[in-house]
Amino acid sequence: MSANDILKLHEAVIDSWNRHDTKKFATYVDENVVWYDIGSPEAIRGKAGAEEFLNGWITGFPDFTMKTLNTVVADDKIAVELEFSGTNTGPLKVGDQPEISATNKKVKNRGCYFGKVKNGKFIEVRSYPDLAGMMMQLGLMEIHEAHA
Asked: What CATH topology corresponds to 3-137?
């Protein structure tokens, strides 16, 4: 695939996320995709796992949207910086942690992902959302200033 084709694939993925269309999203990942997310101790595997991952974000943030800030494409790989915004009006599940009840707070957060593409589909994804920043915006985590 050309760099332009990989960029179009990324744009289609983001469009499917913004439309909250898990079935369309699944058409852009390989049957055996392996997804490593910083919030999950184990890799997410296969189309069903990728759909479940997206559904978790839709459940926690039914109004979320994503926007691409920066991209780098080389060979069969893409690196992307994203901005995410939404209101936490549903339960949120991050990795193997206990479910978080809705906070009804808005977040605007950033993260990045690295993807590898083969035959027009993502075969590997490594995602790094700013979970600490998100948890602070949700009121679930504080940073305490150290005192001398």
From this structure: Nuclear Transport Factor 2; Chain: A, (3.10.450)
**With 80 as the cut, is the pLDDT of residue 148 above it?**
no
- Cα dihedral value 36, 41, 43, 47, nearest 10: -90
- From the number of C-beta atoms within 10 Å of its C-beta (0-12, 13-18, 19+), residue 115 rates as buried
Give the pLDDT confidence of 81-103 residue by residue, as tens digits. Answer: 999 999 999 999 888 888 999 99
**How many CA atoms, within 13 angstroms, populate the side-chain half-sphere of residue 79?**
3
Q: What length does the chain have?
A: 148
Give the start-to-end residue ranges of the domains of the chain: 3-137
What DSSP string runs through 58-121?
A: HHH-TT-EEEEEEEEEETTEEEEEEEEEEE--S-B--TTSPPBPP---EEEEEEEEEEEEETTE
**Percent of the residues in the chain that have a pLDDT greater than 70, as a whole number:** 97
DSSP β-ladder status, 121-129 and 65-74: unpaired
- Element (H or E) spanning 129, and its range? strand 121-129
Six token digits for residue 16: 């499917």
Angle at 43 between CA 42 and CA 45, to 5 degrees: 130
User: How many other C-beta atoms lie within 10 A of the C-beta of residue 129?
Assistant: 19
